[in-house]
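Input sequence (100 aa), recorded before submission:
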Amino acid sequence: MLTGCYRSISTDFTPLKPWFLYLLECCDGSIYTGITTDVGARFAAHCRGDGARYTRAHPPLRLLGFESHPDRSAASKAEYRIKQLSAAQKRLFANSLETP
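Predicted structure, token format:
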């Protein structure tokens, strides 16, 4: 006889919420790169001054684009890769992204 605590295994899996890498063009022409689970809400936060410290000093002008990633880790790795690029390279990359 088996004893112990057993958990039922559910076959009803809720898909994980995707993470997004996004690029903003700031009013001084600089490009901000970030990650989030809700691009629209994060852009609105940046516009209100509730976003990153950088965008408080360099208010966003527009969302250049975004791309989806399966989890935070993948989005963070993509963010690091993009942050290593020059501004010109970031603009070229932004041309390949989804836009709202």
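Checked by second reader. The longest helix spans residues 72-83.
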